[in-house]
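[stage:ingest] chain + small molecule (magnesium ion)
[stage:ingest] validated
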Amino acid sequence: MIEDKSFKSTNISELGEFGLIDHLTSQFVIKQPTTIKGVGDDAAVLDFKNQQVVLTTDLLIEGVHFDLSYMPLKHLGYKAAIVNISDVCAMNATPTQITVSIAISNRFPLEAIEELYAGIKIACEKYGVDLVGGDTTSSTKGMLISVTALGVLKAEDVVYRSGAKPNDLLVVSGDLGAAYLGLQVLEREKQVFLVNPQSQPDLTAYDYLIERHLKPEARKDIIEMLKELDVKPTAMIDISDGLSSEILHLCKQSNVGCKLYEDKIPLDQQVISTCEEFNINSTTVALSGGEDYELLFTVAQEDFDKIKGNPSMTIIGFMTEAKEGVNLITRANQQIEITAQGWNSFKE
Ligand code: ADP
Ligand code: MG
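[stage:predict] done
[stage:export] tokens:
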């Protein structure tokens, strides 16, 4: 899957900054009709005619957001693009362009940065977005990568976090908790490796989990599917920090409460079996795990028939009056208040 280029190591200074930028970006093809000028001038030029534009940015820092000892650079590039494309989708918009800014220390040879850009290019191709600019600078130690993404939509299609109403259905795409468990598996293998570098881990029982951590996807397909079904969510958010944290965002910004049903939370079989093995509660993992990049949204009751039984989305609860609070209804039919246990950058 990942080509081994370790035998070749070219010092970036051989190319110089402009040579490097040219080398990295010349392989990218512009496809969006809205891109008038991409990389190569002082700024990109875009023409969105009468559409609305959404804009979002994320900063990833080595040692805080990623660990290069088990995150291949190609995957990192892919993921850095995906997390932003996911935010564009969460506005109900179609992603169109990204910019990528990197800070790299001299510990990275050209081949490493090529891998990073190979991953970014795969994401651009898969999601049909153009790379239209960025910035390149040096860092004293680690790597920083910042991606900005743009998307377009008609003004009437924008979906905010704030539009949910009491009785709306709460819906989630895909399944939850796998990305977090994938990270736990990789962390465990890293510790094993540190003790015994000869160990050859067999990770086939966790392949879905690891894939979900290393190679997440943005649910652009769900945005398209909802359009085809003629369903406009009343509120939407992508799940980067964990279900509980995102539900609380929706409820707070929409001024509603919620009943979430534990037995409805979609879990992959590998999540269930790995939770048993690690002796952790699968509901906790789904609520607090994070980085699944699924879409969490609310739809009006009258849209129930359009989405019921759809294998790509699960109705996990419904919204209530704010005074009823934000609650989990357990399998034992107990009501527990949901608190923010989602990942928080400032925790610890
Ligand atoms: P400036 O000095 O005006 O910031 P740069 O030399 O940094 O210009 O960038 C030249 C062009 O290359 C611009 O179009 C910029 O957006 C693009 N660019 C710079 N770094 C990157 C990068 N890491 N990835 C993609 N495009 C980049
Ligand atoms: Mg610059």
